[in-house]
Amino acid sequence: MSATGQAPVTSIAFLGLGHMGLPMASNLAAAGFTVRAYDPVPAAAAAARAAGLDVAGSPADAAAETDVVVTMLPTGRHVLDAYRPGGGIVGTVPEGALLIDSSTIDVADARAAHEIAARAGLRSLDAPVSGGTVGATAGTLTFMVGGDADAFEAAGPVLSGMGRRIVHCGGAGAGQAAKVCNNLILAESMIAVSEAFVLAESLGLSHQALYDVVSTSSGQCWAVTTNCPVPGPVPTSPANRGFDGGFATRLMAKDLRLAASAAAAARVDLPLGRKALDIYDKLEATAPDRDFSVVIDAIRERTPAQ
Ligand code: NAD
């Protein structure tokens, strides 16, 4: 028992072994937890086996007799399907077990998932992440967590096994709320930074000169100093490798749709958010897997050749 009277977590069911889930589950196994993993796609299950994980044949098989279930799934629909009776978790895990959903989903879906868990006598957290596949592999993710304080405390060792910074944002849905707000800033700031670089090009200003000024001035932000949309000033940014890897435009479009949905439910108007969603919606159709800083090409295309 811990100082708080809670038994330490030893066994974890991990559902969803995609780009993020596989390295996260692998880090939990490496941290000493007993991990039973599941993914319905045979290639994902095979990759998990090849990575040394114990792979179950069904969600219920993975979740039986575990202390904690972590889900890392594509959408809210997948999460709610997994949480609903018959999905393999509820009715399978012991009463008092802890459900942690780290997928990025709608705030309303996250709250619905908490309600399903509570009705079944299960503790739950929404715990979306920031840091992408690089952070998932390195175990340096940031977790934004919503849910009760006792569930948050119980989750500490599990989240620490996958991340570096863990922030309790508030009650049910607060983690997803923080995630959509952060990514709204990210989308809008990347468009603003890209517009500035395209304008600079037309004014005869070099990329490096603009970078040197902005990175130490009031325009400074992550979109400039870490993910700079032009090659050169930040050698590790995706612009240096044809926008390969990084944070895909389809995921940015998804997160902006979640922000729009949360804003509509809260009756908040987001004029720039609406415009950003329009821009990323179109970009998703042409460059779904490129890093979202490829938005600079879409802005350049609107600039007539000089
Ligand atoms: P992904 O599509 O690579 O992986 C999702 C996996 O879930 C797939 O392998 C799919 O087969 C599996 N799955 C679907 N239904 C399932 C079920 N019922 N049980 C078990 N597995 C099931 O997606 P990803 O890139 O790993 O992202 C996962 C989540 O994390 C998404 O919500 C995404 O928005 C979020 N996210 C992704 C990134 C990123 O950089 N990729 C960053 C932050 C957050």
How is this structure best described in words?
The chain has 306 residues and is of the alpha/beta class. 48% of the residues lie in helices and 13% in strands. It contains 13 helices and nine strands. It has helices spanning 21-30, 42-50, 59-63, 76-83, 107-119, 132-138, 149-160, 174-202, 207-214, 222-225, 249-266, 271-286, 295-301; strands at residues 11-15, 34-38, 54-55, 68-71, 98-101, 123-126, 129-130, 141-146, 163-170. The strands form two sheets. A six-stranded parallel β-sheet has the order 3-2-1-4-5-6, sandwiched between helices. Strands 7-8-9 form a three-stranded mixed β-sheet. Strand 8, helix 7 and strand 9 form a beta-alpha-beta unit. Helix 1 runs parallel beside helix 6 (132-138) and helix 8 (174-202) crosses helix 11 (249-266). The N and C termini lie far apart (70 Å). The mean pLDDT is 95. The structure holds nicotinamide-adenine-dinucleotide.
